[in-house]
Amino acid sequence: MPLNGRKTAILALTAALALSATACDDDDPVSPEGLGQQEAEVMTEALMEAGGLGLGVVGLGFGGMAAPAETTEDVTLDDSFPCAGGGSIQISGQLSMARDGESMDWTLEHTHQSCGVTAPSDNSSWTFDGAPSLTNSGSASATEEAFSLEGSQVGEIAWETGDRTGTCGIDVSYSFQGDEAAGSFSGTISGSVCGFDVSQSFDVTG
What we know:
3 helices; 9 strands; 18% helix
């Protein structure tokens, strides 16, 4: 199945990964930005909940493209998406799909604008603003029954939780794989958030 038929699966993968955050360090050291290790993990989860690394938009791009196309099809995106707790994320950039509908790449700029979200693991409330933005770039490929995508998100984000505020650097890589015939899906995200190493993953079968 080409990538443009996999919108639902991609959205499900990002939702599953957003719910899979776990803390890495019981000692919870504190970064210069004022967040502990566990809080950096929760903030990563909240960012996933807010924007899903932009992969929800990528999924919408898959669904909106016609395939096969006679030539490579490019879609320019510049739109605002609401956040659950108020505010929005402005996402702009370009998605490009090969004519066979089985490969795609993208570069998207995310600018959070008072974007409010609740982290599922501990119900903490977060508000994000671009500082100035996050850049998401990646690629995806598909066969008849399976697909994979990988990419990275880099930039800075201003955060507020409780009575604290700060600005954190984000430099993470992600990878998703799915085999629809076997009903198996997996994903990972790893890298640096607020100066801490973070790692989240999930694996679902059946």
